[in-house]
Amino acid sequence: MLGSTVLIVEDEPALRAQLRLDLTDLGYQARVAAGPEEARSLLSRERVAGVLLDLVLDESEEAGFELLRWLRQHHPGLPVVVLSAARVSASAIRRAYELGASSYFVKGAVPMAHIYSDLAARLVEGVTGRPGTYRFGRLHFDPTHRTVSLGEKQIRLTSQQTALMVHLAQGSKAVSAGELIAAGLFRPDAARSTVHSALLTLRRKLDELEPDLGSRLLASTSRGYSLRPIV
User: Fold this and answer.
1) Which residues share a beta bridge with 147?
2) What is the rounded CA–CA span in Å between residue 167 and residue 199?
3) 3-class secondary structure, 183
């Protein structure tokens, strides 16, 4: 939730600084630690709402796994979103989840906006005891499971469509195609037409729940895109 304190455990200085800047810009109180000992020390002094953990610390996955195990032993309800290097193995992913990772992302495999959206959902889940969800009138959106429901009907979104929905849901004003690109939801060199095409595809997906639902929920004006309640 916005205003919550998030601990970033990352040994690479440049990425650590970027994560801190991004989370601060998103409205969080960011704390940083370069390794396990610093993270444990900080957690003994401060209360945090969630952790963004780089699994490979000091060029070793084991240090990250040990910290994850310690977090689950001493802070069992704390959401932990794990990041890892591209060379990670399937067994490492399985082990992270077995040790209690809330989510797992490979660096560079998805836009950072997707990771931040998942972190937001995990923080809501940690506070309320249920996944962070959104309601737009009769429509129910669950970003954790990437589902949109209307009555008894349900559809599943792609990770990008989920990130788009979360980004639009968290704002109070219309968002332009350029702003969606700048937010990291598309490649930096993406054309505006690519954004419009992705949103049109999202609208058509929503139409599977009810005719013309997409255009009624996902409104488009000269100022940009926004979400509206479904009555």
Assistant:
1) 142, 156
2) 13
3) coil
Final residue belonging to a domain, choices 113, 128, 143:
128
Kindly report, residue by residue over 172-203, the tens digit of the pLDDT.
468 899 988 887 888 889 999 999 999 999 99
HSE on the CB side for 210, CA within 13 Å?
15
Do 124 and 140 reside in the same domain of the chain? Answer: no
Mean pLDDT of all residues belonging to the chain: 85
Single out the residue in 128, 149, 175 at which a domain terminates: 128
Angle at Cα 110 formed by Cα 83 and Cα 153, nearest 5°? 110
Number of folded domains that form the chain? 2
**For position 176, what pLDDT does the model report?**
92
| Residues 75 and 148 both lie in one domain | no
Within the chain, where are the H helices?
A: 13-25, 36-45, 61-74, 90-98, 112-128, 159-169, 177-182, 192-206, 213-217
Residue 91 has pLDDT above 70, yes or no: yes
Which CATH number fits the domain that encloses residue 111? 3.40.50.2300
**pTM to 2 decimal places:** 0.56
